[in-house]
Design goal:
With 405 residues, the chain is mainly alpha-helical. The chain contains 18 helices and no strands.
Length: 405
């Protein structure tokens, strides 16, 4: 029995590594590689229980890492800008996905799922690509991160609404409202601890042993995930808040260093498990709405990004680059597709899956070549004004541009 377990686990990890390596060499995100692998091995005798356990740890650690990226203090200081830019993105993108969801079927619950999956960009793909392409210091990157912060916080609350609207035994508006209320209380409690108990948390996690630090941090993550489930919410919310809690301490970088490798491993299994849950034959009936959503997804994200960028004072090139940066969809969309499949909304789940596959590929390519695309769309004028060339009015007799400092 142990031999079968080791053989199955080893084969899964080796296959994930090879699929990820192939897509990485092609300059693509590894997320669609893992999903496609899951779909490819679906006919084989894969240990479903093993995959489910590892996939649950994957989504928990994935959301934990997202929470680690945020600072409650920074969010509160820049809240107006984040809410304004994130609100534009939400109002432009969510309604289109919701309306197509009504068309696909599944009622208003399916429409909510598809609207959320269409709206939210992939923080994982965008962050990974931005670092690899060395664009962290670009002016549009700061704006993009603010939009992603709003999206992730919105989706955490959105999952709470779905707990009452989709996953409840008797879905209703009152159940959705109660889910939101519980989420707000849960959020407020954790944020309060993060803001006002930081000295206590710093001392609590001040452990010399890395092993003990991982055990304590992992225990907090899993216990908060359990607490969210006990409150009728998603375990993802608890994991996200655990990351938010630890991000306020002086041990944030230590947590990122120690949990980085297992997070990548379990997240890969999560995407594999999602691929295993999909029947490729189901794509035949949803490719039209999925293609429509993909085209709309590119157009509306680019449009929203340009609107946000121009309002933030970015030049047209940087605003277009911002829009192209926000195109990829990924982890949260896949989470919503899994909820759709669990709720019996197979067509909605298949539509979201095909949308994610398309936009994770197209979005990765668009993000990589975004500056070049922006240069071609907005070429520099051949003749620039004197001020643009560096002349200053108080240097009227100067016969060359002012040396740049």
């Amino acid at each position: 029995m142990h031999g079968d377990f080791l053989l199955g686990a080893g084969a899964i990890l080796a296959a994930l590594a090879l699929a990820g390596l192939l897509f990485d060499r092609l300059g693509q995100s590894v997320i669609p590689a893992f999903i496609l692998l899951g779909m490819a091995v679906r006919p084989l005798d894969v240990d479903q229980h093993l995959v489910e356990v590892l996939a649950t740890l994957g989504v928990v650690l994935l959301l934990f890492f997202m929470g680690l990226e945020f600072s409650v203090g920074a969010l509160l200081r820049d809240r107006r800008r984040i809410v304004r830019n994130g609100g534009i993105d939400l109002l432009v993108c969510f309604p289109a996905g919701f309306l197509v969801g009504l068309w696909v079927g599944g009622g208003w619950a399916g429409a909510l799922l598809l609207g959320g999956a269409f709206y939210v960009s992939s923080s994982a793909i965008i962050a990974k690509s931005t670092i690899e392409l060395r664009r962290s210091a670009n002016p549009e990157t700061e704006v993009a991160l603010g939009v992603l912060v709003f999206e992730d916080l919105f989706m955490a609350l959105f999952l709470a609404v779905l707990s009452g609207a989709v996953l409840a035994d008797e879905p209703s508006a009152s159940a959705a409202l109660w889910g939101m209320t519980k989420a707000v209380i849960f959020f407020a409690a954790i944020v309060g601890v993060a803001l006002y108990a930081r000295p206590v948390l710093d001392r609590l996690f001040d452990l010399d042993s890395d092993d003990l630090f991982v055990l304590l941090s992992g225990g907090v993550v899993l216990l908060l995930s359990w607490g969210a489930l006990a409150a009728g919410l998603s375990e993802a919310i608890g994991a996200f808040l655990a990351g938010l809690l630890l991000a306020e301490t002086e041990h944030k970088e230590r947590a990122e260093r120690l949990f980085g490798p297992p997070q990548g491993l379990f997240a890969a299994v999560f995407f594999l498990g999602f691929g295993l849950s999909l029947d490729p034959a189901s794509f035949a009936g949803v490719w039209v709405p999925a293609l429509l959503l993909a085209v709309l997804g590119v157009a509306l994200k680019v449009g929203a990004g340009m609107w946000i960028g121009r309002r933030d004072g970015l030049p047209k090139r940087n605003a277009l680059t911002l829009g192209l940066t926000l195109v990829p969809r990924g982890e949260f969309s896949i989470l919503l597709a899994g909820i759709a499949v669990t709720a019996g909304l197979t067509a909605v789940g298949a539509t979201i899956a095909l949308l994610v596959l398309t936009l994770s590929l197209v979005g990765t390519v668009g993000l990589r070549y975004a500056p070049e695309i922006a240069r071609r769309v907005y070429p520099r004028r051949a003749a620039r004004t004197l001020e643009e060339r560096g002349f200053r009015p108080d240097l009227a007799g100067f016969d060359g541009p002012e040396p740049r400092k």
